[in-house]
Amino acid sequence: MSGARMSALAILRGQIERIETAEVVHQHDRAALGHHEADGALKGGLARAAVHEVFCEGRQGAAATGFVMGLARLVSARKPLLWVRQDFSEVETGALSMNGLAELGLDPRRVVTVRAADVESALRTSADALACDALGAVVLELWGDVRQFDLVASRKLTLAAQGSGVTGLMLRMAAQPLPSTAETRWMLRAAHSPPGAAWDVWGTPRFDAELLRNRHGPCGRWIMEWNCDECQFSEPSTYSQPVAAAPAHRPDSAVLQQRRTG
Fold this sequence. Notes:
By secondary structure, this protein is an alpha/beta fold. The protein is 35% helix and 24% strand. Helix 6 runs parallel beside helix 7 (151-164).
């Protein structure tokens, strides 16, 4: 066997060993989402020190962004969060709202945003950030089906996350899922908010979350409600519908029936 092949084989063995070692170290480090069925499928919660993908359909970008914000809040463990966006993202969807982050439970002072000039810069910045264990999570927001994000780039992000313990969250806008090294893959849609009081116009955030890929468990689809006070997801709340009271001036129906049969 030639020296070049021996060197390539040694590199591959080293990568495999790092992946397997990192999986053993971090396999029990999970962040519970709060939704019992989803946490059961995820073996206790979303794995830290891994990369997770969140996709959305059509005009569901706001729902997917809110879902990723919730995940970032849960996995970051109060450490700073780095959000990498392409420079034209603000033209498409607007800037991230610091008030919105605060309402969802994220501390805006711990959020750092980076605007990348192109996909290569975004991937490079995210890989470097994932290797920094001072961060709690890194969100990489990419638009469209980008050829630069292939298995090699995905593996690089995964290795960086496993080496540092930082969680990577891929927010894919207007893109189709392709093979990757992601631990989980989600498809997000907005769900109807429950009825609320007159002063609570927006209602409680609800997500139609479909788990398309789960490396260590089953997939599923759930309606997940975000509790902004407890900063976790939960099963949808049940709200009883109001029932009109019987008019006081009318006799009871049972009395009417007795009169008719008597």
